[in-house]
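pasting for ref
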Amino acid sequence: MALTFGISFAPNHPKEVADWCRAAEDCGFERVGLVDSQSIYRELYVSCTAGLLASKRITIGPRVTNALTRHPTVTASALVTMAELAPGRVFAGVGTGDSALINIGLKPIKLATLAEFVNSIRGLMRGEKVHYQGSEFQLTWSGIAMPIYVSAHGPKTLEFSGQHADGVIYGDGVGKEIVADALSAVSRGAANAGRNVRDVDIWWGLCGNVGNSRQEALSQIRMLLAAKANHLARFPEQNKHVPPEFREVLDRIHQGYSYLEHQKPGELTTNARLVSESGLEDYLAGRYAIAGTPEECLARLSELEKMGVQKIWLNVHFDDKIGFMKRWSRDVMARIK
């Protein structure tokens, strides 16, 4: 298998984040993404800096930030400052917005606004003058090129990523048709920009856990499956490969979802309970997770590689992150041939 792994954390105390990032590097992960959701978790850029200072090689950045709580000058300034501390080890991850916005009464932005945001931070980091929402501005001290990744869940955002971004973080699961359609959408966007889909760095955002049994592994990631189900229920007009018989249950998860507990660990949280009671845990796990015994995880990875999945970015928001990374490195990554 030619597989590469990243890992994503929701930042708690910056000293903990530093320990997680150092462990991720030691365990062989290629990159770390940190969540930007100010009402629930610690400050993104302080956390990223703590991780960069605690490590030597691993790439670290927001997964993902947004254009409303972070003005493009603020975003570009933070990213370039981190890149001065750790040259070549910082990436920019952006999206239309989720819990960071919803928890303060704002709505996700439109793709046209995201395009303006992406183009602005790219230019600002390079030291160029940019126009954003009718104003012109620049950073007086920048001059760094940095890859920009877009978080995508639907076909329109995938096409957008292929056209405007250096890479995409796809968050709407896996499956033969799902993967094929996602790659096709990115390819269409890349073609619109005169590029090939191979020019776009494609990562698949999935939940991961290793346990002594599949049920044990799943018990720790139900809150992550709930977050995926919540996304799946949004924008029903998009082609998201949802079986018709599941729509009503997914809508109930969406209606009951707690954004103040977004991806918070614990089997007794509101969101974990929504999945436990839904009857859709197996479906959600099959679409969004690599979880089970080491042998079950290896078998699933083999299936995913045959579908065209090569780079996997694992969401790890349960408590024992370092224990998971060590076990994943030893019992899964080390056994991939």
